[in-house]
Design brief:
The chain is mostly helical. It has six helices and four strands, in the order αββααααββα. It has one domain: Lysozyme.
Length: 148
């Protein structure tokens, strides 16, 4: 599957777009981030703190790197997904790298309540402190996952 417009919009909204490299808010240093949450370029080179890009380049970088995260979801999920479910999982994977536990819950058809609990209680902290931004993002991903 490929990410649909709802997934791309959720990812963009959650990440925001910053056209100059900035320090990781949790570490106060690396990894440096640019565009829509990118820590590296298409060739694998890492973002440097001095890097700047245009809005067009940020869009291009997002679209060029999106297939990596789509592949993770496509490879790890063995059950049929709706477009909304796929989009939510790609957004989640873009942000976290993915979670074997979440993927296993979905593959084992653990039930809605287990998946909702996962989205609302996991990967919501930064430096050990609950993050309002991550809590909101997980809620949006959960809502998209269960949207009919």
């Amino acid at each position: 599957m490929k990410t649909g417009i709802a997934g791309i919009n959720l990812l963009k909204e959650s990440e925001g777009c910053v056209l100059h490299a900035y320090k990781d808010p949790v570490t106060g240093d690396k990894p440096f981030t640019i565009g829509y949450g990118n820590t590296y370029y298409e060739d694998g080179s890492k973002i440097k703190l001095s890097n700047k890009i245009t809005k067009e380049r940020a869009e291009e970088l997002l679209l060029n790197l999106l297939p990596k995260y789509e592949k993770i979801v496509n490879d790890k999920i063995k059950v049929k997904l709706t477009q909304n479910q796929f989009d939510a999982l790609v957004s989640y994977t873009w942000n976290t790298g993915g979670s074997s536990t979440l993927f296993n819950l979905i593959n084992n058809e653990a039930g809605d309540s287990s998946i909702i609990k996962w989205f609302t209680t996991k990967y919501i902290t930064a430096n050990g402190i609950e993050s309002d931004g991550l809590i909101k993002r997980r809620k949006k991903e959960c809502n998209l996952y269960f949207k009919k």
